[in-house]
Amino acid sequence: MSVVNILSSDNKIPVSPKAASDFKYGAAVDLGTTTVVLKLYSAEGVCLGKWSSENPQRCISADVIGRISKALDGEGDKLQKSVTDCISSLLTEGCASIGIHNTDVDRMVMTGNTAMLYLLTGRNPLSISRFPFKADNLFGEWTQLFGIKTYLTPCISAFVGGDTVSALLYADVVSKKETALLCDIGTNGEMALYKNGDLYVTSVAAGPAFEGGEISCGCAATDGALYRVWAEEGEIYSHTVANKPAVGICGSGLIDAVSSFLEAGYIDNEGTVLRPLVIKSIGKDISLNQKDIRALQLAKSAVAAGIECMLSRTGTDVTEIRAFYLSGAFGVNTDTQSAVNIGLFPSELKNNACFIGNGALRGAAKMLMDSGYIDTAKDLASKAKTLYLGGSTDFNDAFIRNLKFPQI
Predict the structure, then answer these.
(1) What string of DSSP letters covers 291-320?
(2) Under-50 pLDDT residues of the chain
(3) Would you state the pLDDT for residue 131?
(4) Dihedral-angle region of residue 395 (phi above 0 means left; psi in -120 to 50 means alpha; beta otherwise)
(5) DSSP letter assigned to residue 97
(6) What is the pLDDT of residue 214?
(7) What confidence tens digit (pLDDT) does each residue in 217-247 have?
(8) I want to staple 305 with a disulfide (CB 3.0 to 4.6 A). Which of 100, 176, 244, 398 is the partner?
């Protein structure tokens, strides 16, 4: 098993002498396309708890493009209300569980991709809906939400948002001076390459498969989710989160499962199902189907093609990369060998891989506790160079090439 440990724990965020911790309690929020996550912190930097919920906007549309379209068709207020109600509920739940009132929280840092911040603030997303996709607001500003002084993290472009900036900040990519690649893998796959003092970014539409979305038995990494799957003597077995009865399969389990099915000959490298895809687990077996395999193929091909094009356009050989940071809800439990087996990223990156968990949320927490990091985040966003892949021949060719699974 080749699981790489998380970069570091954020149960305690260090508070420096210049920290802007002049509040009673603070909140860091990751407004994800699929999941909304909130953490509460004391002024001393202690994490007091974490609460999460499926983004209710998924009931309107599963992806960013669909939500932008719905907003332009007059459903912007509905999209805004659904997500603000969600955040408010998480805040209320979190405060109640630690014995404080919502009004005790007087500082918040909110991160998310550009479209999610547009929809949160009720801005018209027309500028990010059509060519040349130049956002008319890249945030990096203070506002008031729920009566709380709130910082909206800076975005880089229409499709590379504050979540990537926050993850880059958390991983401290730029200050280490080495050639590094960061991938924030979720419904939107956002990538950043730091090389010779330059920071390049791009994004791809991966879809929600890595977060359990649009998978017949998919779920978040909650108790009972299959998170580790392996082949043994022709059968497929699994572990569940908290060793609870199986309820479904999360992103890391899905990657493992497809790798195991390839190894055991249940599917071929075209992704064709050759025999029933049954995973033995606690309480009940979990099964995947042909549609699930296709969903994963599309998701992994988008990410793999994005990495391939970014390296090609910047003249970077994969062997030059000294650090490979993986951020996103698909989890710290992802097995790097399984990821290589399904073709998610090149095998040369495996030994340099470091899963940083929800880097976006952890970066937001750093900004919450130390205002100096806000300036660092703004600097990162302003200096990044965006590589546009949508509709390009090199990306389309790479996407088709990466649809197949490697031979194991």
Answers:
(1) HHHHHHHHHHHHHHHHHHHHHHHTT--GGG
(2) 1-9, 17-18, 20
(3) 87
(4) alpha
(5) H
(6) 86
(7) 999 888 999 999 999 998 999 999 999 999 9
(8) 398
Contact between 51 and 41 under an 8 Å Cβ cutoff? The reply is no
pLDDT at residue 244, rounded to an integer: 97
The owner of tokens 């989160």 is 241
Q: Which of 156, 61, 83, 75 is nearest to 113 (CA)?
A: 156
Write out the H or E segment, with its range, that includes residue 386. strand 385-386
Confirm if 385 and 202 have CB atoms less than 8 A apart: no
As a whole number of angstroms, the distance between CA 265 and CA 254 comes to 16
Residue 315: both structure tokens together: 């003249």
What one-character-per-residue DSSP string does 111-178 give?
A: EE-HHHHHHHHT--GGGGTSTT---S----EEEEETTEEEEEPPPSBTTB-HHHHHHHHHHTTGGG-S
* Residue of 323, 113, 138, 118 whose CA lies nearest to 204: 113
pLDDT score at 3: 33
CA angle 326, 330, 335 (to 5 degrees): 70
User: Taking the CA atoms of the chain, what radius of gyration do you get in angstroms?
Assistant: 20
Take residue 193 and report the two structure tokens written for it.
């390459």
Per residue in 321-373, pLDDT (tens digit) is 999 999 986 656 789 999 999 999 999 999 999 989 899 999 999 999 998 99
The crossing angle, in degrees rounded to 10, of helices 372-383 and 359-369 is 130
Place of tokens 């995947």: 288
Which structural domains are found in the chain, ordered by start?
Answer: 25-163 (3.30.420.480), 167-208+295-358+388-401 (3.30.420.40), 217-288 (no CATH)
pLDDT of residue 273: 98
